User: Fold this.
Amino acid sequence: MAFCGHVKIDENNNIVKFPIFGDDLRKAYPNVVFEADISNETFSKYNIYPVYEESYTCNHENQKYTHATVPVLVNNVWTIKVTVEDCTAEEILHREYGKDMASGKPYVTFEKWKKEKED
Assistant:
């Protein structure tokens, strides 16, 4: 699971702030000296915990993924859920044949051009 940041929670595991950064902690406690890279152990003393991205598999040719914007507690780990879904035919076509952003003219991706050239 990939690290995604930190979440501050209250005593009932309700999210107070996400994401929260070391500078937020320093501003909230200006009289406390924190290490340059605040450890998870130090963060946890202030009810701030690491958040990790949920493991997922995605076939980027015909699927797309989205990340939740708010973490959830899964097996005592704050986790950003990931949803994988199939692309529409239009989305797949757009991946293969797009439009140049500057001119608006259609273009073919290198992979598609190479495949057509080989055929």
Notes: The radius of gyration is 21 Å. The chain has four helices and nine strands.
